Amino acid sequence: MLTKEKVQEFLKEIEVDDLVNNLQIMGNDVYIDMTAHSPAMHEKKNWKLP
């Protein structure tokens, strides 16, 4: 099961934790509000939790 701590650790590993404004976990769904340093959509990435 996902926990907030596991998700926060993962975000630190991929070095985007400083961009996160809000993090919510509802069951197996993770909702992350982030501030992008660039408005370009080319930076979209697909990440998978370990």
Report on the architecture of this protein.
The chain is α+β, with helices and mostly antiparallel strands and 50 residues long. It has one helix and two strands. It has one helix at 4-13; strands at residues 20-26, 29-34. Strands 1-2 form a two-stranded antiparallel sheet. The radius of gyration is 11 Å and the shape is globular.
Question: What topology does this entry show?
Answer:
Elements: H1 4-13, E1 20-26, E2 29-34
Antiparallel strand pairs: 1-2
Name a few traits of the molecule:
50 residues, 20% helix
Brief summary:
The chain has 50 residues and is of the alpha+beta class.
Shape: globular
Helix-and-strand structural type: alpha+beta
Q: Could you name the ranges where pLDDT drops below 50 across 5 or more consecutive residues?
A: none
Radius of gyration: 11 Å
Secondary structure: helix percent: 10-25%
